[in-house]
Write a structure and sequence with these properties.
Protein name: Recombination protein NinB
Radius of gyration: 20 Å
Strand order of the largest sheet: 1-2
Organism: Pseudomonas veronii
CATH superfamily of one domain: NinB
Number of helices: 4
Oligomer: single chain
CATH topology of one domain: NinB fold
Pfam families: NinB
Largest sheet: 2 strands, antiparallel
Structural class: mainly alpha
Number of strands: 4
CATH class of one domain: Mainly Alpha
Distance between the termini: 39 Å
CATH architecture of one domain: Orthogonal Bundle
Shape: elongated
Length: 138
């Protein structure tokens, strides 16, 4: 089985060349799947969340990066028309929120979440760090 990852125009050209060179006398099955978020998106997501955690207090409390990730993901899901599930806690103390983990997001979904987090942080007055010396964001 051949697996190709398409990230840019060069990868797309290689994939098209591979498909064009297939022997049509032997039937093939082609499956295209969207991969989970990229390593670069993961780095950016956590960098943005760390800056929010450093600079924003929520209802008088400083929150951890993990808590901010959960809050932002839940709000983003609601805004996108998906509701995190609220269920009674297994130990009977309170309510737990069940939502999609960011590790399971597609590249497009993660990009949307990052955009949402940037907008939220900007609205809350976060001063985003300058571009890094590699030319990347934040």
């Amino acid at each position: 089985m051949t697996s190709l990852q398409i990230r840019n125009e060069s990868d797309r050209s290689k994939a098209m060349g591979y498909i064009a060179g297939l022997d049509l006398a032997k039937p093939k099955k082609l499956a295209i799947t969207e991969v989970d978020r990229s390593g670069e998106q993961n780095k950016l997501l956590h960098k943005l969340l760390s800056q929010i955690a450093e600079q924003v207090s929520w209802h008088g409390q400083k929150l951890t990066i993990d808590v901010w990730k959960r809050l932002c993901t839940a709000a983003w899901l609601r805004e996108a028309g998906h509701s995190p599930m609220l269920v009674p806690a297994l130990d009977g103390h309170g309510i737990d929120m069940i939502f999609e983990h960011t590790s399971k997001l597609s590249i497009a979904q993660c990009a949307s979440l990052i955009t949402w987090i940037e907008a939220f942080g900007s609205q809350e007055g976060v001063r985003w760090a300058a571009q890094d010396h590699y030319g990347g964001r934040y």
